[in-house]
């Protein structure tokens, strides 16, 4: 979850929202899909809304088809990034304990992993790791 904007992603699951709103970019073998869900879609997916708390969930899928391992650093993209637990704490404040626990579990399950292994391993003599940074990915 990103505060004001944030990842809320299925690892390799299909994007649950309308594909006509999906933006996609590929660079150096790394493909990023982005969908910004409506508040109704978010509430249907997680049983709670986030917009009233100033949080805009986003749905990201990163596929690393390159030869370097990648680390996704959400805080580099949005300084107001909320982790799954932070977003659940904020959005679940008015929920029952049971509903809050379910929201936390749902957000953790859908959270984007930070590490993305290379599909094509680099040569044995060098191990490369890079990070996906916000400045290099621009979505309209």
Description:
The protein is of the alpha/beta class and 140 residues long. The protein has one domain. The protein is 24% helix and 22% strand. It is built from four helices and seven strands; from the N terminus they run E-E-E-H-E-E-H-H-H-E-E. Strands 1-4-3-2 form a four-stranded mixed sheet, with no helix packed on it. The protein has a three-stranded mixed sheet with strand order 6-5-7, with no helix packed on it. Helix 3 runs antiparallel to helix 4. The model is unreliable at 1-13 and 124-140 (pLDDT under 50).
Rounded average pLDDT: 76
Assign an overall shape: elongated
**CA-based gyration radius:** 16 Å
Percent of residues in helices comes to 10-25%
Strand content: 15-25%
What characterizes the major β-sheet? Answer: 4 strands, mixed
- Helical element count? 4
Give a quick set of tags describing it:
elongated, single chain, four-stranded mixed beta sheet, 140 residues, alpha/beta, 7 strands
Give a brief description:
24% of the residues lie in helices and 22% in strands.
Mind sketching the topology for me?
Elements: E1 6-7, E2 23-27, E3 30-35, H1 39-46, E4 57-64, E5 69-72, H2 74-77, H3 84-91, H4 97-110, E6 115-116, E7 129-132
Parallel strand pairs: 1-4, 5-7
Antiparallel strand pairs: 2-3, 3-4, 5-6
Helix pairs in contact: 3-4
């Amino acid at each position: 979850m990103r505060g004001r904007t944030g990842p809320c992603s299925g690892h390799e699951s299909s994007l649950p929202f309308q594909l006509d709103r999906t933006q996609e970019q590929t660079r150096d073998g790394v493909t990023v899909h982005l969908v910004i869900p409506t508040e109704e879609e978010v509430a249907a997916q997680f049983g709670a809304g986030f917009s009233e708390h100033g949080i805009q969930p986003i749905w990201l899928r990163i596929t690393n088809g390159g030869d370097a391992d990648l680390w996704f650093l959400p805080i580099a993209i949005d300084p107001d990034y909320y982790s799954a637990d932070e977003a659940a704490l904020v959005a679940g404040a008015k929920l029952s304990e049971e509903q809050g626990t379910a929201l936390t579990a749902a957000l953790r399950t859908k959270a984007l992993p930070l590490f993305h292994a290379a599909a094509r391993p680099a040569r044995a003599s060098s191990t490369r790791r890079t990070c996906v940074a916000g400045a290099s990915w621009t979505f309209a």
